[in-house]
Amino acid sequence: MIRRLLLAACFALLSYGTQAQAFEPGYLVRSTGDTLRGEIENGFWVEPPTFIRFRFSPSSPSQVFQPRQLRVVSFTGDRYFRYEALPIDYQAETRIERLSHSYKPSSQIDSLLAEVLLEGDVSLLRVAQPGAQHYFLVQQGRPTLELSERKYLRDLPKTKNVMMDANNYKGQLLVYFGTCAAASEAVPTTLFTPKSLVKLVELYNKECGAARVPGRQWLPQAKPRRRLSLQGGLVAGMRYNRIESGSPRLAGKCVDCETHPFAGLYADLLQPSRTTAIYGELTLSRFKSQGAHYAYDPVTKAESTTEFNYRATMGTARIGVRYFMQLPREHQLLLTVGYELNSVFESSASVTTTSGRNYSVPKDDLIFASTTLFPNVGLGWRYQRLTVNFDGQMYIASKEDDLSGIFVGSNHALRLSLGYRLSKNPDVTLKAPAPLP
């Protein structure tokens, strides 16, 4: 039954076809003023990216740029970013576990790759940080205005830790647009949302701006088309088991110091910015072990212990987190951390006693080693559809008689695997080349 389900899942994945990484047409403007047209790797960023990968064509090698090396990053008909020196308050926070007990704004000038929501006489930019959204009003000849979410904790009489909202964006906007009656009248009804802020700035540009035009907006494109990306495929390899018997009566010696093949399916649920993923895996493998079955006859009060050897099929489920580090030429370095759960299938067990005769044993006596609380750790390499990974898992040793054995064990399994992505990359879309700015 397990094999049938595995084959069915493989054929379902095959139906999706295969594609490469998510490169999309666009252009870069370098800090020197040169414009490069080609394809940009779309990471569906939420926070500002730390690097930009670019190539002139699908067949050409990719280049990696730091944000400080660029002025503009623009996808065809999609998101648009500018590298700007902006006043940003990194202390602004909305996560309750990180709130301070005082309100102390502290802005500093930092150069950032900011997303453009509106470009005009007054432009509206956005930078997302883990704890707050920051918006910037940029106009030539005027200081840049920062608007940011912010909360803090305040102790009140008979009450402790009341969360206060310190976002005074309406007061800031009234001062900034004080000379424009139309914009000032609209400030009280403006919400702290991209749509509402864009509408207000457009109103100012149209009524009071030098060109009297609303400006060009990228609001529909500013929302990433896809926050998550699910990809999956086949995984196979070899695993070396160094385990003891699961029976306490046979504790101590290694019963499976051998290498066994394994195969199955894997899936990556890539998170926004595509630098981390929730990882899952289902595999089948064989292992060998020894057991001891204890029996007691209540009539004769006779006790007996039957020792036996067996080989069985084991199903392994793993779940964890993967971290991706970019390497040159579209290669990636993977760090995987996770936990595993094993289940032994009785139907595939081959059991003999130590004397050589066949023996029927209850399923509960077919045992694989128990994992420690310390997770398995893996290091790998990925290029397009291929993933090579080396990982290790520790198991509890029978001789450990203190709590340390629950966390670190001398029993272990080492695996070397090859993964092949079968599903298509949902991030990949085909577009026309980007027009020059």
From TrEMBL:
Keyword entries, A-Z: Signal
Signal peptide range in chain numbering: 1-22
Taxonomic superkingdom: Bacteria
Q: Does the keyword Signal apply?
A: yes
Q: What is this protein called?
A: Outer membrane protein beta-barrel domain-containing protein
| Species | Hymenobacter nitidus
